[in-house]
Design goal:
Number of helices: 14
CATH topology of the largest domain: Rossmann fold
Order of helices and strands: HEHEHHEEHEHEEHEHHHHEHEHEHEE
CATH architecture of the largest domain: 3-Layer(aba) Sandwich
Helix content: 25-40%
Distance between the termini: 60 Å
Strand content: 5-15%
Number of domains: 2
Structural class: alpha/beta
C-alpha cells in the first residue's frame, strides 16, 4: 500500500477522518448520524438551505430521525451542514447520496450524480475517498463518475480512491436500521476497496466486499427487482382471485404457514417509494444497451403500474351497485404516503389515483396523519391539477366520513382509527386488506 492509503486508512480506523455526506434526505441523514455517533466529525452537504439550517440548529426535518438524536451531535461539534460545495475538499471521505430518478421517457436520469461529481472534481484533493451510494445501473461508478473525477487531473488509485456501496435504507422500519444491515462494497482497485471497507466497518455489523463496483451496483438493483417482481406477482394473483371470489389475503396467510420455499408479499394499489418503481427500469435500460431484453422485469412494471386503475374500477363498480355515479362523487383516500407509518410520498400511487378520479370528474380528498399538505411531486403538481388551494389532510370524524360517498384505503398507517372508518364510512374500497371481516360497506380491491 502507498503512504496515501496507509494515512487515510489509519485516519478512518482511528475516527480522525472527516466524513462528508452529500444529500441529506432519507439516505444521507441516517448515514451522517451513524458516522457522527460512532465518533467521526461529519460535514453534511445539501443544496436545500432549510435542511442545513435545521441541522445546524440541532433540529430534525424528517420524523424518523428525532431532534433528540441530532442535537447532542451538533452540540458536541460532531455534526454540521452546509450548502457551500466549495467545502467538498475538507472531508477525507465523501459519500454521495443524491437522487437517481427516471426521466419522462423512463430512462435513467443521472444528472444529480453527474453534477455532484462535477462539484467534487472542481475541488478534489489528493488523498480523498469518494463513495457513490445512490442506486444506479451497473457501470455508473466507472463509466460516469470516474471520468468526471479524473477531469480534475488527479488519477484514481494513485491520487484519490473511488468505490460504490449501495444504500439499504428501509424508511419506517424500527427493526432494520443502517447500523444493523450489512454493507456491500465494490472498489475501483484494491486500495479503494480496502479503504471503503475500513470506512463502513465503523458503523455497520458486517461488510460484504465484491469484485467490482458493477457487482455492487447490480446487487442493489437485484434486491429491489426481486421485490418489484414479487409485488407484481401478488398483484396479478389478487386480480385473478378477485374474479374467482377468493380472498387473496387469506390465500397468502395460508401459504405462509409453509416453513420453506415461500416468502409472503402483499398486494396493494400500486408501487411507490424511491426504489421499487424506479430501479427495475434502470436495469432494463442498461440491458437494452447490452443487447439483452428484460421481459420479466418490464412485465412486472406493467402490472404494478396498472393497479391504480384496477382499484378505480372496483370503486366505480361498487358505487354503481349503490346507484351512485363516480362523476361528482366525493372520495376520501386514506393515506398519501407510499407505505405505512412513514411521511414519504415519493412515487406514491395515491397521486395517480387522485388524477384518475379527476379524469372521471370525481372530487378527491385525503387523510394522512403523516402528510398534512399534499406536496408537489415529480409527476404531480397541485397547480397543474387546478387546485384553488393545496390539498390538505382531512380530519377523521363521524361527520367528515359521512360527507364522502366512498373511502379508498391506499396506505394503511397503524395510527389511523380504523374502527371509526369501519363504523361510519358509507363505502370502503380496501386495497390493502385492512378490513378482513366481511361487511356490507367493505369492498376488496
Amino acid at each position: 500500500m502507498s503512504e496515501l492509503d496507509l494515512r487515510l486508512g489509519d485516519a478512518l480506523r482511528d475516527r480522525d477522518a472527516v466524513i462528508g455526506v452529500i444529500g441529506l434526505g432519507y439516505v444521507g441523514l441516517p448515514l451522517a448520524l451513524a458516522f457522527a455517533e460512532s465518533g467521526f466529525r461529519v460535514l453534511g452537504f445539501d443544496l436545500d438551505d432549510k435542511k442545513t439550517e435545521h441541522l445546524n440548529r440541532g433540529e430534525t426535518y424528517l420524523d424518523a430521525f428525532p431532534t433528540k438524536r441530532i442535537r447532542p451531535l451538533v452540540d458536541n461539534a460532531r455534526l454540521s451542514a452546509t450548502t457551500d460545495m466549495e467545502r467538498l475538499s475538507e472531508p477525507d471521505a465523501l459519500l454521495i447520496c443524491v437522487p437517481t430518478p427516471l426521466a419522462a421517457d423512463a430512462t435513467p436520469d443521472l444528472e444529480y450524480v453527474k453534477e455532484t461529481a462535477r462539484r467534487i472534481s472542481d475541488v478534489l484533493r489528493v488523498g480523498q475517498l469518494v463513495v457513490l451510494e445512490s442506486t444506479t445501473y451497473p457501470g455508473t461508478t466507472e463509466e460516469v463518475v470516474l471520468p468526471i473525477l479524473e477531469a480534475s487531473g488527479l488519477r484514481s488509485g494513485e491520487d484519490f480512491f473511488l468505490a460504490y456501496s449501495p444504500e439499504r435504507e428501509n424508511p419506517g422500519s424500527t427493526e432494520y436500521r443502517l447500523e444493523s444491515i450489512p454493507k456491500v462494497v465494490g472498489g475501483v482497485g484494491r486500495q479503494a476497496l480496502s479503504l471503503a471497507l475500513t470506512l463502513y466497518e465503523s458503523v455497520v455489523p458486517a461488510t460484504v466486499p465484491v469484485s467490482s463496483p458493477r457487482v455492487a451496483e447490480a446487487s442493489k438493483l437485484t434486491e429491489n427487482i426481486y421485490r418489484a417482481v414479487n409485488i407484481a406477482l401478488v398483484n396479478e394473483l389478487k386480480m385473478i382471485f378477485d374474479r374467482m371470489g377468493i380472498d387473496v389475503w387469506e390465500v397468502i396467510e395460508a401459504a405462509s404457514t409453509k416453513p420453506f420455499g415461500f416468502k409472503a408479499f402483499y398486494p396493494g394499489p400500486g408501487w411507490g417509494g424511491h426504489c421499487i418503481p424506479i430501479d427495475p427500469f434502470y436495469l432494463s435500460w442498461k440491458a437494452r444497451e447490452a443487447g439483452a431484453e428484460a421481459r420479466f422485469i418490464e412485465l412486472a412494471g406493467e402490472i404494478n403500474t396498472m393497479m391504480p386503475r384496477f382499484v378505480l374500477a372496483k370503486l366505480e363498480a361498487a358505487l354503481e351497485v349503490r346507484g351512485i355515479d363516480l362523476k361528482g362523487a366525493r372520495v376520501l383516500l386514506i393515506g398519501l404516503a407510499y407505505k405505512k407509518n412513514v411521511a414519504d410520498p415519493r412515487e406514491s400511487p395515491a397521486f395517480e389515483f387522485i388524477e384518475l378520479l379527476r379524469q372521471k370528474e370525481a372530487l378527491p380528498a385525503y387523510h394522512d396523519p403523516y402528510i398534512p399538505v399534499a406536496p408537489s411531486m415529480r409527476r404531480w403538481h397541485p397547480s397543474a391539477a387546478h387546485e384553488p388551494a393545496p390539498l390538505e389532510s382531512v380530519a377523521l370524524s363521524k361527520e367528515s366520513l359521512a360527507a364522502f360517498e366512498a373511502v379508498v384505503v391506499i396506505t394503511d398507517h397503524d395510527s389511523i382509527d380504523w374502527d371509526l372508518i369501519r363504523e361510519h364510512a358509507r363505502l370502503i374500497v380496501d386495497s390493502r386488506g385492512r378490513f378482513r371481516e366481511p361487511a356490507e360497506n367493505v369492498v376488496r380491491a
